């Protein structure tokens, strides 16, 4: 790629282990291609699901079926799937060239209510039929380049059970009436053994090619009856538990109830919930890491009648499925976008009858899911009750999966998530809430040369480099170090560094002390070097980044608010020389540390970088002429020049490219780069650090009304939802606040009051502000956007510097919520590094 050829290094800083943590978790995204055959709003094509794929580890393309005559697996929609038709099988497997880490599986069987299970049972019974079937499956997978299959075998379903009798007695009184399950299938024992044989034979057929084999346990299939869990589990890469449709208007037309509860509700059929089904597998010794929980992106709706009562509390009497929605046009079955449109929003509050909004009932217990309803009118019309999944309840299920260390999550189905973003402006909101975090950074990695994993620390007792959290990062724990270096196999050419130290803004005062005392003893330095070398070597890192924590320069005032300029106050703030009385020794000792590290790294060609953190004074702590030959890069973190923590009373540009008048000299990208280069650091070793975030302060009455910085302020502004840190916003959060919403959801009403001020000079960056009102606090935010980072990239190119680094990838708009594409900051950097 051109920027690699040019030797422009685009470095990335991943500040926290949380961003690689779910590396091994699967996100199975289901796409039932039959949805392409629907006409109208419900039609969903492969192109429509493309933007979801970076968030998926697996795409399951459904569904192939069984031909009863031949016992062969066949496409159910040949005109769409096969090369003789639209060629979707090939198109879907070719998505792997665009998303190299995506696995594409063929879904076989599936959940079609009307289809009889008998042919699935008959097939099991004959060894010859199984062989024919397996050969046909192998051939489909091999021919079209799938990575394996998800087998959704249609065993007979349990009979529906009544939840409650109308007269009020609870379900167990009726238990005996509905005990017919054992006779669901008189040959259940044989079928169970034959199913084990089928999976064993499939696994054997797949082994040489390494194809994956997973199963989906369809709703109401009793795995105690049909599956010998200990016998089959070793043949399977995953077991997807379809813990939804516990109650549907087709199975239970007379009783509306939660369709996909996480936990058991009182007085319900036992086991019909996520937790119950997961436990059934765990108690049969299935490893947690193979279990996948399916999250539906759809809701189930019933018609309410005058017998349904007034409270809406389930279970409640109902009269079959509710009316179809505009998209799926299916009775009692709604996509999330359809459900969202029925919930109260500005465009439906005034509507009446069948258009009137439903009353929404959230689930503060986080155990059962949300529902919404509208009572019938006086003519008994327009009553509806819908049980549904929304991003909040899906997040609760994701939390359950994480807490139980299960293998991952399935989204069933991408077609029913809000793929157009009509609900709240965000596409695939249910998929996104799952936060399987490796997916956040992966789409950016093809654009990067280096991934910097941060941060390791110094153990003050031993002076050794040590992980921040051994139980997460080391092999003896969850192995994140190895996860992150193993990304290299999927992104050839990527180098992965381990960073030690890091930004102190978030750390307790005086933390740098251990970084200084380590320098003072030769034995301590040796212990550090030996441990750093061993860590790189053991885990396969390519280099070390010393984000060394030297004491920071004291904050300085910009202006006196009586109107005088800063320089008249200069003499009051000259205390820097006493930041560290032993600065001179530390400067020499740091030179030794870097030299000895370089020597230790020589044989393995590990690279060495120094990250110059904000507010570290070069003159005090660094002898550049002595360091320059032993460092491969210096990463100049030219941001946080002003923060609400350091300067609570004055808001100003936090990362200007050039120096502003009447400011502390040197606190700009250009100022910092010039210090390094004037002291002899070669330009092609200097990397400019860029923040993918913004800094905010609270504007008050004294702040004036112009917003022009520096602005008199009063501490940090309110925290945003993502970083949850006052005065600190990810780029996504900044965009969220700035966005000019016209749309629907209550969320979107946020902050139309902010005034945005772009910087056409490209020298200082944009800012946004709101003067305080009776209703809202004031805010002043300095931030980066694609235009401002583009100017920095152009500066880097014009000067012939080594490249740029981004702190931090996860703070960019990694979901692509606010721009056409994901990672707009990273993309802007690349665009503007391009020559000519
Ligand atoms: C599943 O089958 C077992 C064995 O027949 C039975 O004990 C159990 O109650 C069934 N579970 C459900 C949820 O029907
Ligand atoms: C998703 O990320 C957000 C922000 O980091 C966090 O608040 C939330 O708890 C995460 N959800 C899950 C299910 O991990
Ligand atoms: C380390 O990670 C484990 C596992 O996630 C967590 O339980 C523990 O609290 C973490 N320890 C620290 C010190 O953060
Ligand atoms: C850095 O330290 C030197 C020597 O103490 C001092 O002259 C200079 O002003 C300091 N620079 C900054 C930006 O504080
Ligand atoms: C840097 O090291 C060289 C060589 O030891 C020395 O001559 C020079 O004075 C040092 N510079 C500083 C600023 O300490
Ligand atoms: C928001 O959009 C409206 C209508 O397009 C426009 O008139 C207004 O200037 C915009 N506001 C901002 C802050 O961009």
UniProtKB/TrEMBL annotation:
Gene Ontology MF term list: chitin binding; chitinase activity
Occurrences of domain GH18 (ranges): 25-441, 437-836
Record keyword Disulfide bond present: yes
Lineage: superkingdom: Eukaryota
PROSITE patterns reported in the protein's UniProt record: GH18_2
Annotated SUPFAM superfamilies: (Trans)glycosidases, Chitinase insertion domain
Keyword set includes Glycoprotein: yes
Keyword list, A-Z: Disulfide bond, Glycoprotein, Secreted, Signal
InterPro entries linked to this entry: Chitinase_II/V-like_cat (IPR011583), Chitinase_insertion_sf (IPR029070), GH (IPR017853), Glyco_hydro18_cat (IPR001223), Glycosyl_Hydrlase_18 (IPR050314), IDGF (IPR015520)
Principal subcellular localization: secreted
Matching Pfam families: Glyco_hydro_18
Identification of the protein by name: GH18 domain-containing protein
